[in-house]
């Protein structure tokens, strides 16, 4: 199998504050996108990384990533108005020989190489779709009109991360059959679930958290400092 990784990086990320597209905001002096691409391109079995970038920042993005594709090839395409649009555009740019695809959010810049390799390995072992997940540790309640309507049993609940992995034909079918006017979806696995196909869950990683708010940036910087410490702590 030939495995490509798509990075959705065209979002504005308004909750993170001013400073341009979220993927290009700085984390420890480098854009978050650079951190994300670096991990994907360093992983075993990843042959190509395709970044769906802000359409008005294509040349800037290519320049940022020129030296960051260690082992894997790199391509940059114009992203769309929504995450799904960006993924579809990147899918259409993949070579014909690509048979498996990882989809990653640039907003998860610290997803470690070991997590990328675990998702790719599950695909290579025969899974149609793979997501990394971590058990939910908070109490989760359903709320309507400001009132609690139910408390969910968290024993079977997982918070799902990226990269998520798919057989290429499965992901292309999921996007082709997705109705943008229907119920909202927040990840590609949700589209695959609607096809009635099984989605395998592999252990996620606490460092693959999503950077959404300024506080998340501070946490990400702390993780990087720990990684760079001599003892890794």
Short description:
The protein has 233 residues and is α/β, with parallel strands linked by helices. Helix content is 31%, strand content 24%. It has a single domain, classed as Alpha-Beta Complex (Spore Coat Polysaccharide Biosynthesis Protein SpsA, Chain A).
Task: Tell me about this structure.
This protein is α/β, with parallel strands linked by helices. It has one domain (3-228): Spore Coat Polysaccharide Biosynthesis Protein SpsA, Chain A (Alpha-Beta Complex), CATH 3.90.550.10. It has 7 helices and 12 strands. It has helices at residues 32-42, 58-65, 83-92, 113-124, 168-177, 188-193, 214-228; strands spanning 3-8, 26-27, 30-31, 46-53, 73-78, 100-105, 129-135, 141-144, 147-151, 158-160, 164-167, 200-203. The longest helix is centred in the C-terminal third of the chain and has 15 residues, at 214-228.
- Structural class call reads alpha/beta
CATH architecture: Alpha-Beta Complex
Choose one word for the global shape. globular
**Amount of beta strand:** 15-25%
**Helix and strand sequence:** EEEHEHEHEHEEEEEHHEH
User: At the first level of CATH, what is the class?
Assistant: Alpha Beta
Q: How many β-strand stretches?
A: 12
Determine the CATH topology: Spore Coat Polysaccharide Biosynthesis Protein SpsA, Chain A
**Terminal CA distance:** 36 Å
Q: What can be said about the biggest beta sheet?
A: 8 strands, mixed
* Mean residue pLDDT: 93
Low-confidence blocks of residues: none
Q: For the CA atoms, what is the radius of gyration?
A: 17 Å
What count of structural domains?
1
């Amino acid at each position: 199998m030939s495995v490509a990784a798509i990075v959705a990086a065209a979002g504005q990320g308004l909750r993170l504050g001013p400073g341009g597209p979220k993927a290009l905001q700085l984390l420890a002096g480098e854009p978050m996108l650079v951190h994300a691409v670096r991990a994907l391109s360093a992983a075993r079995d990843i042959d190509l990384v395709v970044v769906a970038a802000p359409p008005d920042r294509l040349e800037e993005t290519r320049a940022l990533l020129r030296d960051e594709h260690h082992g894997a090839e790199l391509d940059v395409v114009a992203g769309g108005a929504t995450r799904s649009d960006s993924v579809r555009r990147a899918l259409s740019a993949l070579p014909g020989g690509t048979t498996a695809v990882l989809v990653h959010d640039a907003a998860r810049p610290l997803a470690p190489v070991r997590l990328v390799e675990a998702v790719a390995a599950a695909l290579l072992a025969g899974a149609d779709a793979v997501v990394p997940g971590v058990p939910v540790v908070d109490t989760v309640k359903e709320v309507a009109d400001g009132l609690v309507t139910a408390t969910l049993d968290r024993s079977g609940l997982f918070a799902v991360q990226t990269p998520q992995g798919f057989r290429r034909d499965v992901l292309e079918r999921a996007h082709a059959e997705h109705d943008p006017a229907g119920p909202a979806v927040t990840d590609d696995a949700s589209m695959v679930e609607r096809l009635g196909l099984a989605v395998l869950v592999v252990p996620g990683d606490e460092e693959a958290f999503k950077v959404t708010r300024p506080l998340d940036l501070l946490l990400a910087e702390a993780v990087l400092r720990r990684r760079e410490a001599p003892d890794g702590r």
